[in-house]
Amino acid sequence: MNKIIILIATIFSINIYSQEIETENWITDLNFLKSELPKKHKNLFFKISKNEFENEIEKIITQLDKDTDIETSIKLHQLIAKIGDSHTTLSTSHITSKRKIIPLDFMWFKEGLFISGTTKENYEILDKKILSINGFKTKTIIDSLKTLNVSENIALINTNSSRLLESNVLLKYFGFSKPNDSIYNLELSDINGNISHYKLMEVENDMNFKRNKTFIKINTEKPFYRNGSGKSFKEEYFPNEKIYFIQYNKCISRETIEKYGDKETAYKYPSFNEFEEKVLKTIETSEIDKLIFDMRFNSGGSSYLAENLIDKIAANKKLNKKGKLFVVVGNDTFSSAIFNTIYFKDKTNAIIIGEETGGKPNHYGFVKSFTLPYSEIKVRYSSEFWKLTDDNDVSIIPDIKIENSYNDYKNGIDPVFEYVKKN
After folding, report:
1. Residues 164-197, buried b or exposed e (16+ Cβ, 10 A)?
2. Beta strands 378-386 and 89-91: pairing type?
3. Any alpha helices (H) in 212-335, and if so which ranges?
């Protein structure tokens, strides 16, 4: 069974401007959406009613003459979020190609939301916890931002809010800044609770901005799970601890692209078959006391990819024991990585550790798409429903909760590795 499920991040353009798509064309698109999405989605009205869905579209239509294209797009995102399916999304970033942003990147730690990136001239706000913007508490802003995405668990709220909080157009849309504002008043705190204030100016989101970015620096060498975390999959044997660490960041490989994607580009992707062969050889030839299978950054792809490897690990009587096998999940664990986590739970004696997942065990998926004719908004929708457990939990809660702290990150410590090493 094909289980490719793709997590599509919702991306908003950042500069409100006058409407460019004609009202009658928007009306055509919205009526097309009203007609086609219920026909194509596996079960569009499992949460929102048909009447509510159609009434919300009619409300958007009545506001077209006064709304900008971006405002219309935001309202559409809010409508799609009400459907309650985190795999059904819109792609609207093309509607504005020129945009400005607030130069901020964020990371969640157990202490709160910290500034992890900005421009070099604003370096002094790095490592600071953000408390408010323009006098509005961060929680108040996030409460508005979470209407733009399905917010069925805290992990999804954290992941999405950290991506959207930099958007000046969203701050303006929700009334957290004025339409002509270009400077934002930040209230900040360091890790010791010392409060400071900073005025931050929005910038053009261009190549110059990307070259001028700077990020949180750690005080030592990056731990294994952070070093090269952009790789699809990687592994390392730690002989002193006798721990074998496998990190599985993407359910995508040369083999999945050859089977389901553009075959001509498959060579650009790493081979999971080769990786699996290396992993199994290491397990066979090394003295391994504990094995860590890390999916805390894995947002999906094709779940079948890792199933054979999981089966082989399950068959290893030495490793498939409580206290020997650990599966790591986190806020970014989603979609096909949820399949693999459940597969581990069903097939092995693994202890699940880390933070709760963004993805639900039972969920809609197997994403397909169509495009609205005039706005060219791409609509991605679920064509199947996956029931993986008898419960209707909104997340996978780990057996052992291990949160990432600011001090651990700064000092290059992986709390997961430290827990496995000591237990």
Report:
1. bbbbbbbbbbbebbeeeeeebebbbbebeeeeee
2. antiparallel
3. 254-260, 272-285, 307-315
The whole-number pLDDT of residue 283 equals 98
What is d(CA 260, CA 327) in angstroms, rounded to the nearest whole number?
A: 27
Q: Which residues, in sequence order, are CB contacts of 124 under 8 Å at separation 6+? A: 198
Q: State the 10-residue block means of pLDDT for the chain, 423 residues long.
A: 36 48 97 98 97 98 95 96 96 74 94 96 97 97 95 90 89 94 96 97 88 93 88 96 97 93 92 97 98 96 94 97 97 95 97 96 94 96 94 93 96 97 94
How far apart are the C-alpha atoms of 120 and 213, rounded to whole Å? 6
Within 13 A of 65's CA, how many CA atoms are on the CB side? 1
Helices and strands per DSSP (H, E), number in the chain? 13, 20
Report how far residue 140's alpha carbon sits from residue 251's, in angstroms, rounded to the nearest whole number. Answer: 35
DSSP-assigned states of every residue in 344-389? HHHHS-PEEEES--SS-SSEEEEEEEEE-TTT--EEEEEEEEE---
Q: At what angle do helices 50-62 and 23-40 cross, to 10 degrees?
A: 170
Angle 19-62-34 from CA coordinates, rounded to 5°: 95
Inter-residue contact 127 to 219 (CB < 8 Å): no
Grouping H, G, I as helix, E, B as strand and the rest as coil, residue 183 is strand
pLDDT score of 19: 60
The residue assigned the tokens 């596996």 is 42
Separation of alpha carbons 119 and 103, rounded Å: 6
In terms of C-beta distances under 8 Å and separation of at least 24 residues, what long-range contacts does 18-26 make, across chains too? 18/68, 19/64, 19/67, 19/68, 19/69, 19/72, 20/69, 21/69, 21/374, 21/375, 22/374, 23/64, 23/65, 25/374, 25/375, 26/61, 26/64, 26/72, 26/374, 26/375
How far apart are the C-alpha atoms of 337 and 332, rounded to whole Å? Answer: 9
> Whole-prediction pTM value?
0.90
DSSP 112-148: EEEEEEEEGGGGGGTTPEEEEETTEEHHHHHHHHGGG
